[in-house]
Amino acid sequence: MTATALRRSTPSDAGVDAAAVTGFLDALTGAGIEAHSLMLLRHGAVVAEAHWAPYEAGQVNLLYSLSKSFTSVAAGIAMGEKRFQLDDRIVDLVPELVPDDVADTWRRVTVRDCLRMATGHLDDPEVHPGEGDVLAAFLRLPPESEPGSVFTYNQLATYTIARLVESSIGLRLLDYLRQRLFEPIGIGPAAWLTDGHGHDFGFSGLHVSTDAIARLGQLLLQRGRWDARQLVPADWVELATSPQMPNDGAHRKPGVEEPTFDWGHGYGFQFWMCRNGFRGDGAYGQFCVVLPEQDAVLAMTAETTEMQTVLDAVWEHLLPGLSGAGSGSGDAVLADRLAAPTIAPPPDDAGGAGTESLRRTGGDAAPSIDSVQVEADGEHWVAVLSSGQRSWRLPIGRGTWLAGVWDGDPGLPFRCAGGWLDGVFRAELRMIRTPHVIQLVVDPARHTVEMRWRQPPLHGLEPADHSISAP
Length: 471
Description:
about 25% helix; 12 helices; six-stranded antiparallel β-sheet
């Protein structure tokens, strides 16, 4: 199926002041936040879009916990089909997995409690796929408090919802979403990390494009309706995107009634309430911010730990620009700014010619790598990476980003650039379907090789931990 492109508009025609978008981008740059992609929609039209090279339009991105919002929508569709209901008890829906000695508190946990992160567990519980069925293991962890009494961010609560959807339909969560949601609204390639037993994580691991994030936000703005079809029950959207559970209200300034921290305004059904509107978000800066009063959606991917700073910039710079103002001159400035944005490659002073194979000496990234050799390859470089008896070549651009594949089945796409500076070779190896970057530093004089994640991935330190079936 070929998806219909989202409608486009100039900012001023949609009542957006392009200077506010420029100010938002400047604020991100000033805070050292590395944006990878951005789409801003107003009145259903894309008014600003950027993909910072080497990240590209249409590529899938790891959403981390923004995946939860897609799982929530799947649950809403399933409940609209009467597969299960909000006040159904979990133990009644998966009786085959319930241990004989299940805690009484578990017997009172409902679908609603899982959706609003209120199972009664006081800490984010953990189980490991090696323990067998993950949901069965979760059911052996008794909630310490009464279900519905306390908010605790809980990955396995979302995983439980994903499993309920799967068991009630007889399909993978991803396949169900493809049929009921992705194809109808034009979401293309998608993939989901699984628990090792064939079940999609639900709480994380979904890979879709930035365009897909934007379409989800627009669907929610339209209360589950797309074109002439009601794909998600409207009353479900209303419930899911409104406060269902109080959370951390402690982040307040003296004399200020409302929390200034955007994780303290209440939680819906796998959506966060914001100072303005609501959102789904994922680690390291994956956002779907929905602003119903302004009829706007911001979809964004990035690599940052300063997620509150991103939201602060939205409220300070972007939000005021959604007031109906705008000008053709401002549109032109923004269009020029977004014409071909690029993340600057590492510098190169042409001071090195390559290295012999050097043993790995440090760093947390890809710990299976034993040794690295840097070779000249015309105007560019190649890193020969060795792990045991295996080795493979990863192209590294000089002043540009080159495509390569990390060894594996399937191989993982990377985009890499680097160069010599003061006798040391430094490169950025970008695991392009994720927010993550490996920093490679090779110092021939010291006979050292370090490979470090700039921000460590949450699903494993080996790139192979992030393998997905190529969508």
